[in-house]
Amino acid sequence: MNMVATRSKEGAQLLKLDQDTPIRVRYHAEGAANVVFTITSFRGVGNEDDDYGPPGSTTKDGIPRIDVRLKGKLLRLRKDVPSVTPVLDSHRHYENHIEPLFPAESLVEQLLCTITPEFVRKCNVALRMEEEPLMKRPRKRHGVNLSEIESHGLLITDMTCDAKHASTEFKPKWLAQSPSAPPGSKRCRTCALQAMRDVESNAKLAQFRRDSADFCPLTLVSGDEDVIRPSLEPILLKSIGAPLDILGFVDLTLPYFQNLHLFRILRDLQVEKDPQGILEVKSSNIDFMTAMALRDCTFFLKIPNQQDKESARIEARLGDLDLKTPDGGKGEYWKKTEQQLIDEGWYTATEKTPAPKGRCVCLLSRNQEYHTD
């Protein structure tokens, strides 16, 4: 049976969510391990001051108020997937090994809460409703529900767009080369893996897909305006939309990215926590597991709209810093993948079946071409 924590590390009573909690949850997004929900009042609003207050109080319209601790938060719940670490274990790792590494303002705040099976079933109903035609849940995620034996959830900073901001999110991935990569590699770890996946999936379709590999992660820590700009366009286009809007947002965010120390801190920590590489270290090593969490986190960005760019500021935070354990065969998968990238020439760009054209060129390859011209 899962251990249930009722107080935070500081001793504060944890917020409890049950079937009587006066909120509505709505599907927002999901990954392989978790689902994120928005939180509103019973009248479908959750951003007005009168909607929040002490437990048991009501608005002027007689609607039960939302606990003020839920203001500005999203709810993140664990899926019923065997390889996913229980929330309490992952959160304790976050508190002890991740949180101390970064300034508080650089992280998506996550507050532990307790949840009841009845509340989870309510959320599962909301989740299944999103599997209906024209709804939001991706087809590949259908049929996977939330864990009804999980006793904890996380309340996280809401980094979605609002009246004054556009928002985007992406995974920076490996900001430094893999310690196991061969000397003279022409691809970084992320670009090598994406090249292999492109060929394995469908070379003809791969060049038209849009995902994190539309840019080389190494560009984000280059400090070079000419190198960073081409990476920002696919990142912003993915979430903001129309190409005509992108140039203004790129111009607005470029100086910010050029001087952003957060990515350099993240890169240095990835190197510090895994100096040897997956082939040389036990995958259960706590520093290595921390490094893998740092390599799979999400970068959240709120950008002022064009008309509000003078009065609103850019807000950036790292989130999804979950414990990465070798359980469920993941450790062996990491080792196998790394060995395959080496043996089949994906790092050195000497693979038998060339990766499709149309993708970004890894910064390592660009630098080598520059120095040989």
Describe this entry's structure for a reader:
With 373 residues, the chain is an alpha+beta fold. The protein has helices at 87-98, 117-129, 189-201, 203-206, 225-240, 243-258, 261-273, 286-294, 330-343, 363-372; strands spanning 15-17, 24-30, 34-40, 52-53, 66-67, 73-78, 110-115, 152-157, 165-170, 298-304, 315-319. β2 (24-30) and β3 (34-40) form a beta hairpin. α5 crosses α6 (243-258) and α7 (261-273) runs antiparallel to α8.
Strand content: 15-25%
Q: Note the run of SSEs as H and E.
A: EEEEEEHEHEEHHHHHHEEHH
Q: Give the strand order of the largest sheet, numbering strands 1, 2, ... along the chain.
A: 1-7-8-6-3-2
Anisotropy-based shape: globular
The count of β-strands is 11
State the secondary-structure class.
alpha+beta
Q: What is the arithmetic mean of pLDDT?
A: 86
Q: What's the arrangement of secondary structure elements?
A:
Elements: E1 15-17, E2 24-30, E3 34-40, E4 52-53, E5 66-67, E6 73-78, H1 87-98, E7 110-115, H2 117-129, E8 152-157, E9 165-170, H3 189-201, H4 203-206, H5 225-240, H6 243-258, H7 261-273, H8 286-294, E10 298-304, E11 315-319, H9 330-343, H10 363-372
Helix pairs in contact: 5-6, 7-8
